[in-house]
Each structure stands twice: as C-alpha cells, then as structure tokens.
Amino acid sequence: LVFLGLALPGTQGKIIPKCEMVGILRRNGFEGFEGTTVADWMCLVKYESDYNTKAYNNNGPSRDYGIFQINSKYWCNDGKTAGAKDACHISCSKLLNDNIEDDIQCAKKIAREAHGLSPWYGWKNHCRGRNLSSFVRGC
User: Fold this and answer.
1) Residues with catalytic function
2) What is the rounded CA–CA span in Å between residue 106 and residue 58?
3) For the chain, what is the mean pLDDT?
4) Would 107 be classed as within a structural domain?
5) Are 103 and 44 in contact (CB under 8 A)?
6) What class of enzyme is it (predicted)?
C-alpha cells in the first residue's frame, strides 16, 4: 500500500478521534494480533489515511481505499484495476463509508497473510521500530 499524504479533495469522511479509534482497535482484537500493537495500528492509520474513513489514493494502475488504505490490486474490487485479486471479496467502495467493520476484517486478513504490517508503506516508513506510545497515550 502506498503512503497517503492527503486525501483527495471531496473525499472528507468521518475523521475518527484518537481515543475512539484506539477503543475500536482494542475491541476488535488488534492488540497482539500478528505481533502488532494497537499503537502500531494507530500509527499506520495516521500515516495511511489520517483517520479519514473516506481516504482515497490513486497509485496509477491501482488505488487505495478507506481508513486502512486497502489496495485494489490485491484486496478489493473497484472494477477498474486490471488483474485484481479481490482477496477480501469486497467492493472497494464499501471501504469508503463510515462503518469500518469490513475494513477491519480486510486489514486483519492482510496482516495475517503478511505476518505483520509490512504491506503498508505508511507504517514501514514512519512507524516500524519507533516508540509509538504517544499514539495510545491517554486512551
């Protein structure tokens, strides 16, 4: 997945507040999942989508969708990406609404298959190996 600096204009979704997102991740079993922490996931979401449920990024041949920036080449079907695998069996457009339950299931599938968060460039470039305690502090 490619790092997303800013969501494209007109794609403002719900910006999930920090502690609300921490709670969502904790309730959905992200702490310890595939050797990751909630702080890892919070950092990933910050640098991939800036907590925006409708974040979208065009990578040329593929696109990234939603709060976890799930890619259309491998994980979802946008009807535009040649040779798409659709491993999460979901329409990419469903990753752009404020209900992130399906986003969570697909993100966990990606992390499970990769045994961690290495598919996300936002996490690799900004989070891996760093002290991420500020992402969960106070929550």
Assistant:
1) 48, 64
2) 19
3) 92
4) yes
5) no
6) hydrolase
